[in-house]
Each structure stands twice: as structure tokens, then as C-alpha cells.
Specification:
- The protein folds into two domains: 73 residues; 136 residues, no CATH class.
- Helices cover 30% and strands 25% of the residues.
- It contains seven helices and 13 strands.
- Strand 8 and strand 9 form a beta hairpin.
- Helix 6 packs parallel to helix 7.
- Bound molecules: iron/sulfur cluster.
- The site of iron/sulfur cluster has 12 residues, from helix 5.
Length: 240
């Protein structure tokens, strides 16, 4: 594929390719597409093929994607990190002859993404600048693990992750952490700056599982996996 074709197969933003979630469905015997994407600032964009008139079924997918692309570019806000298509981005960089510029993984909420459990962020301007400068890639293990935002807060209880309603969310946390480790490996990243105290990203300190604000020594699920993969991890508390 040429660079243009790769860019047209998703949504290009700052030389990275993002893919909205596009779900096909049968709607009264007709093919129907529903596309959704979350932007970093918490905005949710949706488009569906119902907005299109007189379009051949074979073109519906591309036309819904084009609607979404135009909307994201009009907002001029980066899509949330869980919509990044790593493989297409790497292919795109190769086609335009750009060397992989990424040196750090950073917790997406530190870069200002509204992916925290309550829909907020933990913006640290200097960390957001690393992302703006193209040398850091934001990751949110909980979002990539398939958890919604907002979501019920979770804490570590021994080796499990339990939410405040008592539901075991360990599987989603592990799946998100694995995904983030794959990104680090694929990009050859050696360093990460992660959000302290989180049950995913916390490094050295996490909440004790009683939802009382008490801290204990320990690492979040993603931080532990990234450490095991050999990454050098710092947190927003000790990063200059
Ligand atoms: S601390 Fe980690 S898992 Fe939690 S919102 Fe921030 S990036 Fe996502």
C-alpha cells in the first residue's frame, strides 16, 4: 500500500493512524455501519450509514470512515490512545521514510487524555509535551483492556484486581497490560513514565485494596509486566 492508501484506510493525526470502531449490522435486511471514536478531551464522535443517501453497499464502509475522518480533523483533537493502529502507523512511517521517533511510553492520563476511571485526566504539561513533540506514545492499559470510561474504580487485592462493587476485573487489566507490552516491544521502547498509585500503572506504591486511600508497596499490573520486559520505569512523581 502507498502512504496515501494507508492514511485513507484510517484517520491520520500527527503522522499516526487511528481506527474508529466500526460495527456492521443487518438493519431490516440492509447493511448498516455504526462508527465510534473517543477523543483525548472526552468527546465521543459517532457516525452511521443512516447519514448517507444513495450510496452503494460496497462503498458504505469507506464513506462512514470518511465521515468520521472529516469530523476528527474538524475537532483537531487527537483520538484516545486505544484507537491507535500500531501496525498501520509503522507501515505509514516506513512508506514516508520516517524513522521511529518514539523513546517513551507514558500513561495516557498524564498526557491529558480523559481516560481515568472517573472520566478525568492527570495532566502533567511536561509529559503532554513529550507526546506533542512525537517522542512519547500515550498508553492506557485499562482502556486497551476494554474497560469503559468512566468505570467503577479498582484496587489490587493480592494478585487480583477488584472493583469497588466487588467484581473481579483481573482479566481486563492483564489483557490491557499485555497489549501495552506488545506496543513497547514493537516500537523498541526502553523507558516509560507511568502514573503512580494506579492498579495498572502504579510503580512502587499502590492502594491497599480497601478503597480507603491507604498505600502499600507494590506495582500495578501493567507496570509489573513492563518492568519484567526490561523497561526502565519512572513515575510523574520522580520524573523531572
Ligand atoms: S493510570 Fe494508567 S490505566 Fe489509569 S487512566 Fe492513567 S493511563 Fe489509564
Amino acid at each position: 500500500m502507498t502512504a496515501d492508501q494507508i492514511a485513507q484506510s484510517g484517520i491520520i493525526f500527527h503522522n499516526q493512524i487511528y481506527m474508529p470502531k466500526i460495527i456492521p449490522a443487518d438493519y431490516g435486511g440492509s447493511l448498516f455501519y455504526q462508527a465510534t471514536i473517543h477523543l483525548c478531551d472526552g468527546t465521543v464522535l459517532t457516525h452511521s450509514s443512516c447519514e448517507l443517501n444513495d450510496v452503494d453497499e460496497s462503498e458504505l464502509y469507506d464513506r462512514v470512515l470518511a465521515l468520521m475522518r472529516n469530523d476528527v480533523l474538524a475537532h483537531n483533537v487527537r483520538p484516545r490512545c486505544d484507537y491507535l493502529d500500531m501496525e498501520k502507523t509503522l507501515q505509514y512511517w516506513k512508506q514516508i521514510g520516517q524513522k521511529n521517533p518514539i523513546e517513551y511510553l507514558v500513561s495516557a492520563c498524564l498526557a491529558g487524555e480523559h481516560c481515568r476511571y472517573d472520566g478525568g485526566s492527570n495532566l502533567v504539561p511536561a509529559i503532554a509535551k513529550l507526546v506533542e513533540d512525537g517522542i512519547a506514545i500515550p498508553v492506557c492499559p485499562e482502556a486497551t483492556g476494554g474497560l469503559d470510561t468512566p468505570r467503577t474504580p479498582c484496587e489490587l487485592v493480592k494478585n487480583r484486581v477488584i472493583n469497588k462493587d466487588g467484581l473481579d476485573c483481573t482479566e481486563a487489566f492483564q489483557s490491557g497490560a499485555l497489549h501495552v507490552c506488545r506496543i513497547a516491544e514493537r516500537l523498541g521502547v526502553q523507558k516509560a513514565v507511568l502514573k503512580q498509585r494506579s492498579p495498572s500503572c502504579g510503580c512502587g506504591k499502590v492502594y491497599d485494596g480497601t478503597f480507603s486511600g491507604r498505600l502499600i508497596k507494590g506495582d500495578g499490573i501493567a507496570a509489573a509486566m513492563l518492568k519484567k520486559s526490561g523497561l526502565q520505569i519512572t513515575t510523574e512523581e520522580d520524573w523531572q
